[in-house]
Amino acid sequence: MLQQAFNGLVGGAFYALLALGLSVIFGMLGVVNFAHGAFYMLGAFTSYVLLDSYGVNFWAALVVVPVALGVVGIVLERLFIRRLTPLDPLYNFLFTFGLTLILQDLVKREYGVQSQPYPRPSALSGTLDLGLFTYPAYQVFVLGVSVLVCLLVWFVLVRTRVGMVVRAATERPELTRALGIDVGRWVTPVFGFGIALAGLAGVLAAPMRAVNPLMGADLIIVVFAVVVIGGLGSLFGSVAAGFTIGLVSALGNYYVPALSQTLVFILMAAVLLWRPAGLFGREEAL
Amino acid sequence: MTTAPILTARGLAKEFRGFRAVDGVDLDVAEGKVHALVGPNGAGKTTLFNLLTGFLKPTTGRITVGGRDLTGKNPEQVARHGVARSFQITSLFPQMSARGHLELALASPTPLGWRFWRSDRLLARYRDRALELLDQVGLADHAEMPAGNLAYGRKRALELALALALDPKVLLLDEPTAGMGLEDVDRTVRLIQQVREGRTVVLVEHNMKVVSSLADQVTVLQHGQVLVEGPYAEIRHDPRVISAYLGDADVAH
């Protein structure tokens, strides 16, 4: 039971990282990034290719892959998303969705749909004795990295001026601009950062999850539910909901296996009925 | 009439899918005056306002502030050239304190640059000025209250303080008394009278009593064009103005 809870938190660590990236992007750009899952998948696949073909190990991938994908995100924002933002939101919806299909199929063409193996880094291949039960060291590491990254993002948002600008621009873009603050300058880096978070989640997933072209598509649907439950635009809500949903679905899986796939969505429906703006979202009051 | 205009618009037009919301407006706002934009609903007041503040880009025409061409500039650039605005609909950060709002506004002209990692505690240096501004709009006792919890009239006062924090040459107020009870209206009028000292104020306003007690100059808009312009005492009896308003059932002033 405790072990199940721990499994849940580890699963939640992925939800949290992905939901956080989706939320900062949605908050700053007003864009729902449907390609987020594809970048998670690319994160895992790039790590696999780097290791398999170039011998680049996990630790290097953990740094290089998120940075590289962040740069890809920046280019995409500059070339496409920026031009589509002033138009109907549907255009970015179509763009990011189309991008997902393209990325998935490109990977499929090269590597097929079967899962690729990715070994755990040797330093983390053992188990840790957590007192009540022993647990794979790698999973503990994943949880630690995720918590650390979430705390770091929180610190940047709350304690620095760029964080203040991002928070202000997320909540009230018009007022922020009227105060003479250049919101536009931060849009591109924030998008890149959100993509880098997805890439990081992908690298972390490679040694413990099946690396295949559809791994992102399977996960991202749940992540969208997580973002909705946490409250659209609420960064704290995304992270809190990420870990909570991970926990709830792992326990649900254990007690009522029949509901394992649907539990998250039942939860989402319940939260929406009770609080339409999500757990930590703010209902707009005049 | 002899002072040079600080804000001018020439042939300003904005077209939305074939509909000309603002249609060739010339405007001269004299320095140090209060200039009201009035007109029936749909006359193009708010569109004009958004053009002047950079929130909309004109289809044609030019805008200058203090002799500098600001046509097509972004809202943040317009703000940095000394044009501050308020919003018709309250648009504060619900969870941020009144003081926090002002510190953010006071810090905005200092270039954020790439020193972005520096702590927001730097904002504390703006605290005295922030409290001074709050005092000026009568919010000294509400400095630490989250803006979302302020009463409506106080929210509007905070918005005015925010615009003042930018120390603007030109202050644009979008319906500063919209939705207010009589008491708040009077207080807001007094407040504007007080802050106009040494500033130019442009306001969009529906309430003719407010216009009459504040405005030195009034521009009446209709169908996106300037119908009449002059001091309030002159335009109020103008038959064209009366018929423009009578044609609009909403306005019974």
UniProtKB/TrEMBL annotation, chain A:
Record-linked InterPro entries: ABC_transp_permease (IPR001851), BCAA_transport_permease (IPR052157)
One Pfam family per UniProt: BPD_transp_2
Topological category with respect to the lipid bilayer: Multi-pass membrane protein
Localization of this protein: Cell membrane
Key words, A-Z: Amino-acid transport, Cell membrane, Membrane, Transmembrane, Transmembrane helix, Transport
Transmembrane segments annotated in the record for this chain: 12-36, 56-77, 89-107, 137-157, 186-207, 219-247, 254-274
Family, similarity comment: Belongs to the binding-protein-dependent transport system permease family. LivHM subfamily.
Protein name per its UniProtKB record: Branched-chain amino acid ABC transporter permease
Organism, scientific name: Actinomadura alba
From TrEMBL, chain B:
UniProt keyword Acyltransferase, yes or no: no
Annotated ABC transporter domain residues: 7-248
Top-level taxon in the UniProt lineage: Bacteria
Keyword Nucleotide-binding tagged: yes
Stored CDD domains: ABC_Mj1267_LivG_branched (cd03219)
A Pfam family hit: BCA_ABC_TP_C
Organism name: Actinomadura alba
PANTHER family given in the database record: ABC TRANSPORTER ATP-BINDING PROTEIN (PTHR45772:SF3), CONSERVED COMPONENT OF ABC TRANSPORTER FOR NATURAL AMINO ACIDS-RELATED (PTHR45772)
Alphabetical keyword list: ATP-binding, Nucleotide-binding, Transport
Protein name per Swiss-Prot or TrEMBL: ABC transporter ATP-binding protein
One GO molecular-function entry: ATP binding
Gene3D superfamilies hit by this protein: P-loop containing nucleotide triphosphate hydrolases
